[in-house]
Amino acid sequence: MSNKVAIIASNGGVFDAYKVFNIATAAAATEKEVAIFFTFEGLNLIHKQAMHALPLPEGKEHIAEGFAKANVPSIPQLVEMAQELGVKFIGCQMTMDVMGLTKDDFIDGIEVGGAVTFLEFAKDASPTLTF
């Protein structure tokens, strides 16, 4: 059985962020090697500004209050936790180029690479998840 968990983050909403970082931190906390490939809107999850204002689905605003009442960590806190646990963050070079973004637009500590970079990690990962 593999000791790797590979995650593709291609969506950029609050719910997507919680799914990605909850799975990543849980896996890393159980001593799994974890990498997340951020592409398209998923790049918002690690963008210095965007990560602080991720959209909620319409009509779900009350859930933000539920997160606060339940003391659920914020997305920036989960990002920090994931990094502290050794989760590898890979920003998609192609998507960054298309969107006119550079590594400086993102949090410190990310790697920038293409699909091949992620696939090299993911080739023997189990599970591989997409959000």
Describe it.
This is Sulfur reduction protein DsrE. Pfam families: DrsE_2. InterPro entries: DsrE2-like, DsrEFH-like. This protein has 131 residues and is of the alpha/beta class. The chain has a single domain, classed as DsrEFH-like (Hypothetical Protein Ychn, Chain: A, 3-Layer(aba) Sandwich). Helix content is 38%, strand content 18%. The protein has a five-stranded parallel sheet, sandwiched between helices. Strand 3, helix 4 and strand 4 form a beta-alpha-beta unit. Helix 1 packs parallel to helix 3. The longest helix is centred in the N-terminal third of the chain and has 16 residues. The chain is globular. The two termini are 23 Å apart. The model has no long low-confidence stretch (mean pLDDT 95).
CATH class: Alpha Beta
**Whole-angstrom Rg:** 14 Å
Oligomer: single chain
CATH fourth-tier homologous superfamily: DsrEFH-like
Order of helical and strand elements:
EHEHHEHEHE
Number of helices: 5
Please identify, by name, the CATH architecture. 3-Layer(aba) Sandwich
What is the 3D form? globular
The domain count comes to: 1
Question: Total number of β-strand segments?
Answer: 5
CATH-assigned fold name: Hypothetical Protein Ychn, Chain: A
- Low-confidence parts lasting 5 or more residues at pLDDT below 50? none
Strand % is 15-25%
Main pleated-sheet profile: 5 strands, parallel
**For the terminal residues, how far apart are their CA atoms?**
23 Å
Proportion in helices: 25-40%
- Helices and strands: which structural class? alpha/beta
Task: Give the overall pLDDT as a whole number.
Answer: 95
Q: In order across it, which strands form the biggest sheet?
A: 4-3-2-1-5
